[in-house]
Write a structure and sequence with these properties.
Layout: H1 3-18, H2 25-34, E1 37-43, E2 48-53, E3 58-61, H3 77-88, H4 94-103, E4 106-112, E5 117-122, E6 127-131
Antiparallel strand pairs: 1-2, 1-4, 2-3, 4-5, 5-6
Length: 137
């Protein structure tokens, strides 16, 4: 296991131990930022993720949301915001969140841990940017 993967794994363990169920994302984000992660790029529906860290980039591949070819849903900002609020309220699991964002037409998103923003992209160039709060660990 590389130093980058080991560092990222330990940061996830710390974050999961301290983050609250409701409003927990900023705690995860701050833990990753303090561990030297600057960005996290997600690609849907494949659930491929790229972490850009001080120790080198790390790829992570989850379970795909679709099999084979799939039509991409149209970008629906209201549906996306509803999925975000549901997740922020602790009313969805992460896999449910990913599926909800996909169903809202999101094909990728970019978490910038330095700027504290999440930018969600549709296939036609649409985008929605949301900032998240600063937390003290």
């Amino acid at each position: 296991m590389s130093e980058a993967i080991e560092n990222l794994s330990k940061a996830f363990e710390r974050a999961m131990a301290i983050r609250p169920k409701v409003g927990g994302f900023p705690y995860l984000a701050e833990t990753l930022r303090q561990a030297g992660v600057s960005r996290n790029l997600w690609y849907l529906p494949s659930c491929q993720s790229l972490y850009l860290t001080d120790l080198g980039p790390v790829a992570s591949v989850g379970a795909s949301l679709t099999d084979g070819m799939a039509d991409i849903p149209p970008f629906d900002e209201e549906m996306l915001i509803a999925a975000l609020r549901k997740d922020q309220a602790g009313e969805s699991t992460f896999p449910e969140f990913l599926l909800s964002t996909w169903n809202a037409g999101v094909v990728s998103y970019d978490v910038d841990f330095v700027e504290r923003t999440c930018t969600y992209y549709g296939s036609g160039g649409e985008r929605y940017v949301e900032s998240y709060s600063v937390v003290e660990l």
